[in-house]
Amino acid sequence: MDKALPNSAEKQVGLRKLLEAKDARVRAAL
């Protein structure tokens, strides 16, 4: 996914949101 999109601020925000969602899921499972 990272390779398919051009570099942009929106992509950086989107990737950060994905990381936050993954972190939240991990914390919820604990």
- As a percent range, the share of helical residues equals over 70%
Beta-strand segment tally: 0
Uncertain regions: pLDDT < 50 for 5+ in a row?
none
Strand content: under 5%
The average pLDDT value, as a whole number, equals 88
Largest beta-sheet details: none
The class by helix and strand makeup works out as: mainly alpha
SSE arrangement, N to C: H
- Quote the distance from N terminus to C terminus: 28 Å
Radius of gyration: 12 Å
Given the C-alpha coordinates, what overall shape results? elongated
Number of helical elements: 1
Overview of this structure, please?
This protein is an all-alpha fold. Helix content is 70%, strand content 0%. It is built from one helix and no strands. It is elongated, with a radius of gyration of 12 Å. The termini are far apart.
Describe how the helices and strands are arranged:
Elements: H1 9-29
What is shown here, in short?
The protein is an all-alpha fold. Helices cover 70% and strands 0% of the residues. The model has no long low-confidence stretch (mean pLDDT 88).
Which descriptors would you attach to this protein?
30 residues, mainly alpha, elongated
